[in-house]
Amino acid sequence: MRADAVRNRQKIVEVASELMDDVGAQFSMDAVAKAARVGAGTLYRHFPTRELLIAEIIDTRHTDLPAVEELLAQTSTAREALRIWISILWGWMRSYESLTQPLLEASENNYSSPLGVHCSAIITNMDHLIKRAQEEGDVREDVTGMSLYHAVLGLAWASKNLESADSLLILLEKGWSV
Asked: Is the dihedral angle over the CA atoms 54, 60, 64, 67 positive or is it negative?
């Protein structure tokens, strides 16, 4: 890419990220173009859809989901690692207003949206943790990464106005544990 194209792309991501902080994932693409001082054509050349732009923001700002093996090494049981993973995931899903809807759509459309890569990786990690916890006898056999992902996503949506969802996370755990 030319230097001006790189600067435009960086400015678009920076402005969109700030808008997501302010208004959530339903920001206006026109508002992004205007605030970044680029034309609509430039914006859509870099990011043809809002989902691509959201995925880019998540790629640049949210790399704090821990590695599953790291969690397993730091905890005494897979159940504890899964509990920590779910709590972190819940916070991540709540990091932006209205992010739960695009994440849900990405998970339901065979990961074909730009956010699908994130959903797929999260669900794969969750499957790994669940399998380990099932081997230890701590998670019901019918629980899957996809079902637990959707449960956490629903919890993130339902608890968007709560500072802490400790009681809801405990309730969720009673549903997935043996």
From this structure: positive
